[in-house]
Amino acid sequence: MDSVSFIIPHKGRENMLIETIGSIAALEYPHEKLEIVLVSQNPAVSADVKQAAGNITLQVIESTPDNTISTSRNIGARQAKGNYFAFLDADIALSANWLSTCLQLLQSRRDTKLVSAMQLPSATPTPLEHIRVALSNADLDCTVSFLPGRNLLLSKETFYQAGQFPDDLVTCEDYYFTDKVNQLGELYYTSQAQYVHIGEDKQLAAMFSKEIWRGQSNLASTRDRRIPLREWPSFIVPVAIPGLLLCALLLAIAGYSGLSLMALGLAVLPVILYSLRLFKLVAGTTSFWQVLKFYSVYFPARAIGTVGGIIKTIGTSSHGK
């Protein structure tokens, strides 16, 4: 039976990490074939973390606070001994069949290079969590163009062929990396295994801050990779909406009420279209009003993050010169 290394970058709270490691210990797979490589930016790891691993080998590696999540993952990979790498975030609870199912799919599907499982909501989900889960599961039991880095299974060979994670990207590193894997073969998203994102966004205020942070590497992640047509709106729309709203305001001040209303309509249109699409995906788990609120917060946050990332990149480049 194949050996598998679970590589987990970690910083901050331990309660979710303990639950993550506990779900690995509950997997339907021989423990002697597993290891957990924890790359932590915490100064120390508690005994509870080690106890959660049970009889699975746990290797703890210290990572400096300035390292990106990519760097931590790459450090863990260099120390991992398994033939297969399972990259997890430190707030993921896996289903008991996660490894056996994903590994079987990876080995039986000839052109598949990476497998990821579908997301399930927690026991008491908020409307926002229902929305996040619906977006995550928009495409199931099929090949996809890229995947978030919460739960990824691939061979050690594929990991190095894809060039590892990009050390310089603060966010969006998973989209960049999985796109590189996709150039080697298929990415498969399955409903046969599942996970719960314990740290999923629960409230819009917290999501707003996180989306600003997530958006800072939005454009940087496009370098050296092909951008499918379906992905372009995610870059254009968040920035276009506040731009059109500003135009509407300036036109109104200048007395061009007709043009102002037209700009306002163009700004609102993508929010309505995205909301209608998402409302179908949530399938009655939350209201249209909640969906509309989600995009009313998501797009401004992404715009701030994207613009901030551009300014930061320009400032860094200028400083470098």
Describe what this molecule looks like in 3D.
With 321 residues, the chain is an alpha/beta fold. It folds into two domains: 4-202, Spore Coat Polysaccharide Biosynthesis Protein SpsA, Chain A, CATH 3.90.550; 229-320, no CATH class. It has eleven helices and nine strands. Strands 1, 2, 3, 4, 5, 6, 7, 8 and 9 form a nine-stranded mixed β-sheet that branches. The model has no long low-confidence stretch (mean pLDDT 90).
Concise summary:
The chain has 321 residues and is an alpha/beta fold.
Which structural traits does this protein have?
321 residues, transmembrane helix, EC 2.4.-.-, 2 domains, 9-stranded mixed sheet, Spore Coat Polysaccharide Biosynthesis Protein SpsA, Chain A, alpha/beta, elongated, single chain, membrane, 11 helices
SS summary, helix count = 11
- What is the C-alpha radius of gyration, as a whole number of Å? 21 Å
Specify the CATH architecture of the largest domain: Alpha-Beta Complex
Shape: elongated
Largest sheet: 9 strands, mixed
What are the secondary-structure elements, in order, as H or E?
EHEHEHEEHEHEEHHEHHHH
Helical amount: 40-55%
Q: What share of the residues does DSSP label as strand, in percent? A: 15-25%
Q: How many strands in all?
A: 9
Contiguous low-pLDDT stretches (5 residues minimum) are none
Average of per-residue pLDDT values: 90
The third-level CATH topology of the largest domain is Spore Coat Polysaccharide Biosynthesis Protein SpsA, Chain A
| Tally of individual domains | 2
Structural class: alpha/beta
Q: How many angstroms does the end-to-end distance come to?
A: 53 Å
Keywords: Cell membrane, Glycosyltransferase, Membrane, Transferase, Transmembrane, Transmembrane helix
Subcellular location: Cell membrane
Pfam families: Glycos_transf_2
InterPro entries: Glyco_trans_2-like (IPR001173), Nucleotide-diphossugar_trans (IPR029044)
